[in-house]
Amino acid sequence: MAFETQRAALADVVAIPVTPFAEDGSVEQDTYRALLRRLLDGGITTLTPNGNTGEFYALTPEERRLVTELTIDETGERAVVLVGVGHDIPTAVASARHARDLGAQMVMVHQPVHPYVSQAGWVDYHRAIAQAVPELGVVPYIRNAQLPGARLAELADACPNVIGVKYAVPDAARFAAFARDAGLERFVWVAGLAEPYAPSYFSAGATGFTSGLVNVAPAVSLNMIEALRSGDYPAAMKVWEQIRRFEELRADSGSANNVTVVKEALASLGLCRREVRPPSRQLPESERAEVAAIAAGWSI
């Protein structure tokens, strides 16, 4: 099977590293490398730099390239790197080629940010990127509930390097139908809404899930995927209960604090600064103690 290594890497905990910022607002490179080493030492073998937990849309083009370079340099052979790319087609293609030239194995294509996304245009957008880097595995990031599975199949017919899907529509029944309409066995299905949705999505065919929580507690995320792989849903739900409040805080107010809560937990552990960039915001001091207590309770 083509892209065997990449397919196997997607059927796992797909970690989305945070991007730490220095006091002057720049990317804190040494801290970022330390956070990557912590993930790798914790057993994580698939990394997505420039994901949403990495504040992709708040980074400049130069910073996105820097994050890609730091990740690939620090990771070496220890993990498979799935680089987030997006924005307009020329920018996404340039980012994908940059990742390829550095040695990345895959790219994840962020959903098109445009007020008018047609189904055929969605296919055209992803086709242009995938065909520009045929050597790389390509993973569309799907958040559009209106997109039918047949469109993904159409894309893969034209681009055999489209090998996996990060599916992030919060509807397990819709995911089950979409995956079967696109081809359940044709793609690696990654639950793109992380641990809270992983059990329900695994029951419908997912074999991997993304995680921002993994930045804080790699062992917790690994415990969940091991339970899911073995079909032990009661054990998986015990992990679900363990992380429930943390993920509720992240999801509050339309996920306004998605990255904020992760960085706050890391700050409470002395691992990075809590700063996030607008339009995100720091967690108010009145809410920080709860996040710190949760992180401390995971015995990291």
TrEMBL record:
GO molecular function: 4-hydroxy-tetrahydrodipicolinate synthase activity
InterPro entries: Aldolase_TIM, DapA-like
UniProt KW Lyase keyword: yes
Active site: residue positions: 141 (proton donor/acceptor), 166 (schiff-base intermediate with substrate)
SMART domains found in the cross-reference section: DHDPS
Keyword line: Lyase
SUPFAM superfamilies linked: Aldolase
Residues that bind pyruvate: 53
Family: Belongs to the DapA family.
Protein name as catalogued: Putative 5-dehydro-4-deoxyglucarate dehydratase
Organism: Streptomyces afghaniensis 772
